[in-house]
Amino acid sequence: MKKYFFCGIGGSGMSSLALALKNRGDDISGSDRAYDAGNAAEKFEILKNQGLKLFAQDGSGITADTDALVVSSAVEETIPDVVKARELGLPIVTRARLLAEFFNARNGIAVGGTSGKTTTTGMLGHILRQAGVDPTVINGGVMLNYPDSLGTGSVLAGKSSFCVIEADESDGSIELYKPAVSIVTSITLDHKPLEELRVLFGDFVARASVGAVLNADNADCLALKDKNPTVLTFSTEGSPADLQAVDITPVENGTEFGLDGQKVFLPVIGHHNVANALAAVAAAELIGVTQSQSIEALATFKGIHRRLETVGTTKKGVTVIDDFGHNPEKIAASLSALKEYAGRLIVIYQPHGFKPTKMMRAGIVEAFDKHLSMDDTLIMQEIYYAGGTAAKDISSADLVRDLEKTGKRVHFIPDRKKIVSLVKALAAKGDRVVIMGARDETLSDFAKTILNSIG
Questions:
Q1: Could you list the residue range(s) of the whole structural domain that residue 446 is in?
Q2: Kind and range of the H or E element at 248?
């Protein structure tokens, strides 16, 4: 048994790993600035109920018998927990390195890519669970089929040797994983330049000991095919591939498509989710689960929290949707899926991170311009700032000015109360109000506030 202290234990990735290690038998404690501020009280209560010990982020929880302080890649040296660990001469390890240690000791399936990782991980975990494989799954989002699993729904504690994880490329930590199966869902501009991503994902595919799964509709993914002798490819757009989805049809409660002569029903919307499903089916096939087993399991997949998740529909007939879309690819995928159904869109978008927003500015503007109609409305909040020393050299107002040139209805409103007032005035029967953004854990509560305010 090891004794770990997690600095920033409330983060989705940190809490998932903490719970998995606790389930393994380790002694887990941690701190979080949100806990100190009294935010997200329900989440921290859940962690305490699972046996995790929480402390103020003042160094008081770190003792000489702590085996290691676990930090995210973004932690600062001035945080009191880090200062205390340095004083005591304790090892400081990143969450990614500790996850890699856990994962590499198992038959691991790592889901990588700049979009679709969390949903694909959830789909694959559900397929394997329904097929009797009983995997451990460490995900970055709540799996709605298992919302109470280890309290948070982001971790499945399996008894087999198989482990499915979401492998993050944004901080380069994907290079630490030694998977049996590597999945690359997409390679597009996100937190890193494409040149760096191509190298990271190429090495990731090459390290897979059993095989790799690649998106044939993405040129950068397909270019990695020769990196591994065993590769399965998938396509939703008619590209030559081992798994091809055909006759993709939006239906009232999901999506239908054909796969190798079999009819598939997926209870979530969007071509991007069909692609996620094909990736999961292919990976399952590489470890011996049949397509028929996977298709049967997918018919009961409920989705992932904050991935086009319906918060509710008001008496006025206005539906409020909570979505994680934040980079150009994710924004385009979500809007494209929503546009397959009738109803005007009122989108409230919050970018996160000044450097990523600056890098993706043109792509974000293009995604909204391409996928919003002239009668839709876009409301942009100020860029979410999570702390740190980043240069605040760009504002959401800059993106709004770019979009104003397209003639679209767009507003820059930093004040959420004013956003609520505008949405109440605009929303009419049949409209969909979509809250989009990442990292800011208050977005889901904001979606509920909007739902309740429309009435």
A1: 309-454
A2: strand 243-251
pLDDT value of residue 390: 75
Helix axes 443-454, 416-426, angle to 10 degrees: 40
Q: Tell me: pLDDT of 248 over 90.
A: yes
Q: How far apart are CA 162 and CA 106, in angstroms?
A: 6
Of 126-135, 166-175, 319-328, the range with the lowest mean pLDDT is 166-175
Nearest to 443 by CA among 454, 429, 433: 433
Cα-based distances in Å from 432 to 59, 373, 454: 45, 13, 12
End-to-end alpha carbon distance in the chain:
51
Cα 149 versus chain centre, distance: 18
Q: What is the mean pLDDT of residues 49-61?
A: 96
- What are the backbone dihedrals phi and psi of residue 78, each rounded to the nearest 5 degrees, phi first? -80, -10
Is position 142 within any domain? yes
- For range 186-201, the mean pLDDT: 83
Cβ(77)–Cβ(149) below 8 Å: no
d(CA 444, CA 320): 11
Alpha carbons 344 and 272: distance in angstroms, whole number: 21
Backbone angles phi, psi at 369, to 5 degrees: -65, -40
Residues 164, 156: Cα–Cα separation, whole Å = 9
* Those residues with Cβ within 8 angstroms of residue 406's Cβ, 6 or more apart along the chain or in another chain: 369
Place of tokens 């660990």: 85
Residue pLDDT, tens place only, 308-365: 999 999 999 999 999 999 989 899 999 999 999 999 999 999 998 898 899 899 999 9
Among the candidates 58, 93, 128, a domain finishes at 93
Whether 89 shows a pLDDT value over 80: the answer reads yes
- Asked if 153 and 283 sit in the same domain, the reply is yes
Same domain for 54 and 154, yes or no, is no
Would residue 216 count as lying in a domain? yes
In a domain, 199, yes or no: yes
- What are 412's strand-pairing partners? 380
At 276 the three-state DSSP class reads: helix
Compute the half-sphere exposure of residue 249: CA atoms within 13 Å on the CB side of its CA. Answer: 10
Minimal CA–CA distance to 362: which of 301, 317, 405, 421? 405
pTM of the model: 0.89
For residue 120, the Cα-to-chain-centroid distance in whole angstroms is 10
State the Cα–Cα distance between residues 145 and 132, nearest whole angstrom: 16
* Cα dihedral sign, 248-283-291-296: negative
